[in-house]
């Protein structure tokens, strides 16, 4: 593989390290490359970021904890990544190509150091000094699967070591994109022909009747069917959250954390007479309006803080969706660039906001109506504990029968009105869904 691929990879991981968006930087750097070069560069960056803690642990062990300049560390990271995870790259190429990256750099005087460190690591590749699973279980999980130590400790505490390891070691297989048919633009009968006509290989989702997976597509927003609004990209777990709300034709529906509009657009398919979709951030409301325009969805959109009461909404909605801002731990398995940066303090702060939003928005539910609380996280603090807290304060609400509104394949996993989905068990995003019903006769 020519040196330009590794140079591009070096620029990408350096920029991500400085806070840049992986997908955007990757897209820029891949422009103009041959297909094979694109595949190698993407895989090298993805694998390096996905295994960053493990790679750094190895580098630190072989540089005896010395401070290593950021540029040199990134060169070493790419080299170690190839040595540990790329069987197709010979050891000599992994080392020599890394040394070449040093040659034209301001740190070229350290190319001997890079050469020596990588050669030592190559020699010990089958026998690296990782932490012991028995003696330091949390450190072992954190290093081997490259997650923050606090998260490994939390998962061990909440789920036990074996389950925690299954969660943290899970990797997304394949490159399938989950999409939803937009019933406004294409009938169920036309749908498969449309996908076939566009040359896609595709298959149906396992849980949601609306979920379809298209194999190996990139730049979805450039596809004709996407631009025309025939399909939209949405995770299957997110579809399940909307289905759990069992919205019926003619109902008034409010989505209080709605941008960029995925769930609200799906909610529209169930024929509400009124759909209000709001979000805190004006730029995200704009994105949502673009989504709705593309899909032909009619909704009242608004910028609003869901924690601040709107008295005219009291008792006005049959169904209120609270798809709360959350720590997104359920998505980390497919987000190599952010999985290592999550901060524990975030969780308590988010839980407080989620409670405020639940408290405020529960008032908008009509007697006999539903409050659907969802997050894309795996954190009891943000999920079950919030629902317990809410139900304790609101005896007028009770858990609904989620089993009536969720795929048969998930019935055993639902407890009362709630379900926690796990990527390593369900092979979809790690969502939490809770269906809460307000007592009283539906008018
Ligand atoms: C999980 S995302 C929503 C995804 C959306 N429901 C969908 O399916 O496309 C959470 C949203 O909550 C918004 N948000 C954060 N704090 C909020 C608040 N206090 N009030 C309203 N929206 C808020 C964020 O801007 C973000 O768009």
UniProtKB/TrEMBL annotation:
Q: Which InterPro entries match?
A: MeTrfase_RsmB-F_NOP2_cat, MeTrfase_RsmB-F_NOP2_dom, NusB-like_sf, NusB_RsmB_TIM44, RCMT, rRNA_ssu_MeTfrase_B, RsmB-like_ferredoxin, SAM-dependent_MTases_sf
Q: Which GO terms describe its molecular function?
A: RNA binding; rRNA methyltransferase activity
Subcellular localization(s) per the UniProt record: Cytoplasm
Q: What class of enzyme is it?
A: transferase
- Keyword DNA damage listed? The answer is no
Q: Which residues form the active site?
A: 376
Q: Can you tell which superkingdom this protein's organism belongs to?
A: Bacteria
The biological processes this protein is annotated with in GO are: regulation of DNA-templated transcription
Assigned EC number:
2.1.1.176
Provide the primary localization.
Answer: cytoplasm
- Domain SAM-dependent MTase RsmB/NOP-type, by residue range, is 167-439
Question: Is NAD there in the keyword field?
Answer: no
Function, please?
Answer: Specifically methylates the cytosine at position 967 (m5C967) of 16S rRNA.
* Name used for this protein in its record: 16S rRNA (cytosine(967)-C(5))-methyltransferase
Gene behind the chain: rsmB
């Amino acid at each position: 593989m020519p040196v330009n691929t590794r140079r591009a990879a070096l620029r990408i991981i350096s920029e991500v390290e400085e806070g840049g968006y992986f997908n955007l930087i990757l897209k820029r750097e891949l422009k103009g490359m041959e297909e094979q070069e694109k595949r190698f560069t993407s895989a090298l960056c993805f694998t390096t970021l996905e295994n960053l803690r493990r790679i750094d642990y190895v580098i630190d062990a072989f540089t005896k904890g010395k401070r290593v300049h950021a540029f040199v560390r990134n060169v070493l990271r790419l080299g170690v990544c190839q040595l540990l995870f790329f069987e197709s790259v010979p050891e000599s190429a992994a080392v020599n190509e890394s040394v070449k990256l040093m040659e034209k750099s301001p740190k070229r005087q350290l190319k001997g150091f890079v050469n020596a460190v990588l050669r030592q690591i190559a020699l010990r590749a089958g026998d690296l000094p990782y932490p012991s699973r028995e003696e330091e279980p949390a450190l072992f999980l954190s290093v081997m699967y490259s997650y923050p130590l606090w998260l490994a400790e939390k998962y061990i505490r909440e789920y036990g070591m074996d389950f925690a390891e299954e969660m943290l070691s899970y990797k997304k297989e394949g490159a399938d994109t989950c999409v939803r048919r937009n019933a406004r633009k294409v009938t169920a009968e036309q749908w498969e022909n449309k996908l076939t006509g566009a040359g896609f290989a595709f298959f149906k989702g396992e849980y949601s009747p609306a979920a379809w997976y298209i194999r190996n597509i990139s730049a979805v927003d450039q596809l004709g069917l996407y631009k025309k609004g025939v399909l939209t990209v949405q995770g299957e777990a997110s579809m399940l959250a909307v289905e759990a709300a069992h919205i019926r034709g003619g109902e008034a529906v409010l989505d209080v954390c709605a941008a960029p509009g995925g769930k609200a657009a799906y909610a529209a398919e169930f024929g509400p007479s009124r759909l209000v979709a709001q979000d805190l951030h004006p730029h995200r409301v704009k994105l949502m309006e673009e989504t709705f325009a593309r899909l032909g969805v009619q909704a009242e959109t608004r910028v609003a803080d869901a924690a601040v009461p709107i008295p005219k909404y009291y008792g006005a909605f049959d169904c209120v969706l609270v798809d709360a801002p959350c720590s997104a731990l359920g998505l980390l398995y497919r987000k190599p660039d952010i999985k290592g940066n999550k901060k524990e303090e975030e969780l308590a702060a988010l839980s407080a906001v989620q409670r405020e939003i639940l408290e405020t928005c529960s008032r908008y539910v009509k007697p006999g109506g539903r409050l659907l609380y969802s997050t894309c996280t795996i954190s009891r603090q943000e999920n079950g504990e919030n629902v317990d807290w809410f139900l304790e304060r609101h005896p007028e609400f009770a858990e609904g029968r989620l089993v009536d509104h969720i795929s048969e394949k998930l019935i055993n996993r639902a407890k009362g009105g709630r379900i926690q989905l796990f990527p390593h068990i369900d092979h979809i995003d790690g969502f939490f869904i809770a269906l809460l019903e307000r007592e009283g006769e539906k008018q």
